[in-house]
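Run log, item B.
One chain of 176 residues. Sequence copied directly from the ordering sheet:
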Amino acid sequence: MAVQLRLAALADEAQLRLLMDKSIRALLKPYLGDAGVEASFEIMGLDTQLISDGTYFIAQIDGQVVGSGGWSRRSTLFGGDHSAGRNAALLNPATDAARVRAMYTDPNFARRGIGRAILNACEAAARVEGFMRAELVATLAGEPLYAACGYAPLEQMTSVTSKGIAIPLLRMGKRL
């Protein structure tokens, strides 16, 4: 099973949205239940700024999209195009941490190294641009991967959706 990574293009948007929907519905359900999964779409999803910035990767096996994820030199910690509180301000690599963002894996390929491959590519690209640290916001489903890859908890967070459903999150960080 050879995982191939490439940068995403805006033409990939429909495939990425399908992957994200499938990933969120299957991988978060054991942690959030049906109502929490549905509410989580309010704070998760595709951020096309990452694609435009050339920092969003697609993982493929035999031409099939099996994962995606990226990193950012911008202030926004998490969320999609539709999420509130976005901030496109550029970060300073000398003082700020790069943001690892929008990591999704096809549930049929979970726990096979897809997320780790994408995360490694994100970290390498951020290092090339001078970042010495990376931060991310993990879901309960993603936390074990990030911890296994050296990310440490920085802050427990909760995002409360417009329907009043609390989505637990964990801000994590790592020295690159």
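Observations after the first pass:
- Residues 4-135 form a domain with the Aminopeptidase fold (CATH 3.40.630.30).
- The chain has a mean pLDDT of 95.
Flagged for discussion on Thursday.
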